[in-house]
Amino acid sequence: MLCAEKLDSSNLPEPPERPLPKDCCGSGCVPCVFDIYEQELAMWEAECKSLNAYERNDDIAVQACNKGVGLKPDKYCDFTILSVLQETPDILRFRCSVPNNTSLGLLMGQHIIARSKARNGSMIVRRYTPISPLSAKGYFDLLIKIYPEGCMSQFVQTWKVGDKISARGPAGHFEYTRNKVGGCINFYNLKIAPDIITVGPAVHLECTRNKYHRVLMLSAGTGVAPMCQVINTVLDDEKDETFLRLVYACRSYKDLMAKKEIDEWTRYWNFSVIFVLSQEIEEENQSYRYREEILRGHINKELLGKEIRNDLSKLLVLVCGSKTFNADMITYIKDLGVPDENIHRF
């Protein structure tokens, strides 16, 4: 057995928990839950080898994390919780500190991998997308949904101010560079040239500047988190004239997450949002913000037909939600004529 020559197995850390087949959505996520598992397994093996050589370096690793950019791809770093707020009935908002007033070092669309130890000693890992600006220094914000039977949720709901979140990253291959000429979003992965956009790990889209005039974002529930990064980054650049449209599906108005940020973004001329509420109950005293677009029901092909309009070559569609939601949305927009290269699923 690995690492068992000098240490009793009871002194070794438990290996990471292997995902179940049902944990994979089958949609080609990068990284997939099984990719993360393989990374965790390699890190566990390295730790065992270190212990076998009597070199316990966890503290050294944490110290190393605290000296530069907040995240390390192959080392877990600790981030202290500064505040905990109840965002919605089942979502908590955490603000965590980043040492030395640095940033996490994420690019747009990337996320972090957080871990916690289960009762049996095995490690549970989950992916979370910070909703704070990528340029934020000294802190980052997470919105985490609490599931009654969720393995990670059992620990997340006990986190309090002063506790530490163990995370690594960046993870994900959907990256963004601001357009300094105006009107176009340039996404890239492995390389970027003046007139080339690369969407995803191996899809190249030849284009001219300002190819995408509009970005349509289709999100459900916590799937709004990566959209927040897109919105934050584009609106933060006064030279970027891309139109952003968020179609946000949720159960009810009170369940909307990142509502504070969304309300602030509506002040910008090139951002708009429609909330599609599937379980909203009409109440006599129900009130919404002035001029809010609210639709009761579900996102369907008819609604998307109105959102997509005619000029498909100038449109980029981003999708993030549950496995079923993603499949339905992609089917609808393809039926409406949006080509594969103009679609990205987080």
UniProtKB/TrEMBL annotation:
Molecular function via GO: cytochrome-b5 reductase activity, acting on NADH
Cofactors: FAD
Catalytic activity, as annotated: 2 Fe(III)-[cytochrome b5] + NADH = 2 Fe(II)-[cytochrome b5] + NAD(+) + H(+)
Family: Belongs to the flavoprotein pyridine nucleotide cytochrome reductase family.
EC number(s) stated in the UniProt entry for this protein: 1.6.2.2
Class of enzymatic activity (EC top level): oxidoreductase
Name of a matching Pfam family: FAD_binding_6
The species this protein was found in: Lymnaea stagnalis
Key word Ribosomal protein present: no
Protein name as it appears in the record: NADH-cytochrome b5 reductase
Transmembrane annotation, as ranges: none
